[in-house]
Design a protein that fits this description.
Number of helices: 2
Strand content: under 5%
Distance between the termini: 39 Å
Shape: elongated
Order of helices and strands: HH
Oligomer: single chain
Structural class: mainly alpha
Number of domains: 1
Largest sheet: none
Radius of gyration: 18 Å
Length: 71
């Protein structure tokens, strides 16, 4: 079970680390080489945004289910 928790922790950090790594690459490169850092930045940001939207949707559905059981 511990390995599964460790794997989940690394997977949770994957998107933020991808964004940080691409920002670092964007700062260290110059000229047209900077364009190579944009795809990982956009993918990481998209993954973070998708995750945030999914969590908000899940919370909203859970709250609606709780309100239905109370009424």
């Amino acid at each position: 079970m511990k390995e599964r928790a460790r794997l989940h922790a690394w997977l949770a950090l994957a998107a933020p680390l991808l964004v940080l790594l691409s920002l670092l690459a964007l700062l260290l490169r110059s000229g047209s080489d900077r364009l190579q850092a944009l795809p990982p930045l956009l993918i990481g940001a998209g993954l973070l945004l998708s995750s945030a939207i999914g969590r908000a949707r899940q919370r909203r559905h859970l709250l609606a289910a709780l309100r239905q059981t109370d009424a």
